[in-house]
């Protein structure tokens, strides 16, 4: 019996050693990459946010890089800014995507989605990593799987999972009442009740402090939505948005209202199609050049 | 409690440690621990149905004791009848009541007197078909004086509810399992290691092969009306591997777990998809059930003795009853009948015992003839599984009709095919390993056995990695519903 337990322990240790060896190698390699990673040289403007700000085409914007990423919550934007503002002293302006839905608790689902978390896992401190691993909302199996996939991908490919890029979705379908209502229901109601994301509210304030610390000007980008989407957005969320961003002066709150036609939106009424993206990218270019 | 659950991963080591460290000195205490553990294992699903197992165990224990005390043939028959009525009564009520009620109603409707079937809202107790047959085997063997009845109530109750094989077999014969509860169990290192290895292989079969195949089999069978013939064939093949991986995987885990506690259970699957004819398939598929029916139904009916008509009758009875055992649905009955039709020509031409040895023994690859026979037998099996998996007869018929249409020659649904490529690769890998290990009790029993320990460890780590990486969505074991 003792011999069996000894052998079982031996195999378990062998398995754990291999697992740890691979995990530590991936982690160390990624830390090394992250330490030396640079954004585009001498950029002055940084666009950061979720899929809504991904549509800004940084190839037409001077000295600008868009590092937005789909489903990115403000917590992850903070992690990225903390890293990149430290190592890229040329950055003068940050354009942060914040919309009404940013403060909805629906966003927390993405914050704790293992597929999303794993994108930023290597940017986190060990304490944050452990907090995520132990969090009940995390699918641990999927997180470990994604840790390996994304860790290796960061080592092999030039494109890193945590950086982000300009991108827009396309669809042949047009927005309808039904498709917009579906989106509204998803974004603003959780089991038919209204809830706010305390995490995103907290990290919005932290981003403000961070930009102030690095003497960087922070602009809030609230991209437009389809008129029906805007109409259906619950007032509580608009008020919450105004309340949370009340310390930001009007000049730093960028909106592109009444510029886009309703047909320039994707079926969800929340995202802009490529024609709309082109228009507001040029509008942002004008804004940046006038700064 | 599922074998592939976190609960079981905690439960098993606890019982193992208590069994070998705390209760190892007194066999009665070990049996008591196994009994309590088995009831916890079963009660984890629904504790209310524990009363059925306890009642059934008590009846058979009492019948056994009383049978030993009486020589009156009339009284003995009455006692056996009591056991049969109680056990089959439970099974009939919980499993078949609604089926019979609906079938009677349908029959009356066909005769022009429509009546409404009264359905009962009954939950089928998990594993009832398995433990009922196990406990029945005890009563019948005692009645036939093939087995001395036990007066060790704890050993008997533990035998009926032995948790590794309680809910999905193998259906053990009392002659084999019960005496193991009387003997002192000593820890056997090689047996325990072999058990661990078999558990690992069982988990691979269930989590990697069955659960991944299930995803596509379910998708195709549930949307069969929208699929072309070739996709439906693919769906039937996926189900063929799902049911094998699921059920034989469960059996492997059950046998492996039993070995950890010093018990030997019978082999339940012996590489059935490498069979060269249907008779060989049935000697290798769900062996514990096939031999149960052989011993307690087929042979008492006369077996293969007697005239052609008797043989045909007996074969149809055993296969149809076997189909009906799986579930109260006409699809299972047709599945059984279809297998009887496959089997009969072999029996009537005395070719049913042609392939008793291991296919391509001592060779790496089968001959052309062997390969042809394997593919043909496999195809017949896949065809029969369509009835087994279909929701009802109409579903099975429409499924098969589409397969035998021109759309059979179209390329399978591209999206499904593309998504299933990883699963197809895993199935091919699985077949390869099973082929290499076909001379052993299970696929990986001797794989890397004679290599250095480090090679074995790397291989087992790789298997664990595949189980983790490619594991499909957790699915219930199919045979739990039987």
| Number of E-state strands of chain A | 5
What is the assembly state of the chains in this entry?
Answer: heterodimer
Radius of gyration of chain A over all CA atoms, rounded:
21 Å
Strand order of the largest sheet of chain A: 2-1-3-4-5
Query: How much of the polypeptide of chain B forms β-strand, as a percent range?
Result: under 5%
Tally of helical segments of chain B: 18
- The rounded distance between the terminal residues' Cα atoms of chain B is 16 Å
Helix content of chain A: 40-55%
State the secondary-structure class of chain A: alpha/beta
Instruction: Name the helix and strand elements of chain B from N-terminus to C-terminus, one letter apiece.
Output: HHHHHHHHHHHHHHHHHH
Radius of gyration of chain B: 23 Å
Order of helices and strands of chain A: HEHEHEHHHHHHEHHEH
What structural keywords apply?
heterodimer, A: 291 residues, alpha/beta, 12 helices, B: 482 residues, mainly alpha, 18 helices, 0% strand, globular
Write the layout of secondary structure elements.
The complex is a heterodimer of chains A (291) and B (482).
Chain A: H1 2-36, E1 45-48, H2 51-54, E2 64-66, H3 74-87, E3 93-97, H4 106-111, H5 114-120, H6 126-134, H7 140-156, H8 177-188, H9 198-213, E4 217-222, H10 227-232, H11 235-244, E5 253-255, H12 274-290
Parallel strand pairs in A: 1-2, 1-3, 3-4, 4-5
Helix pairs in contact in A: 1-7, 3-9, 5-7
Chain B: H1 6-22, H2 27-46, H3 50-69, H4 73-110, H5 128-143, H6 153-161, H7 174-182, H8 189-222, H9 229-260, H10 278-284, H11 287-298, H12 308-326, H13 330-348, H14 368-389, H15 393-403, H16 414-419, H17 421-436, H18 453-470
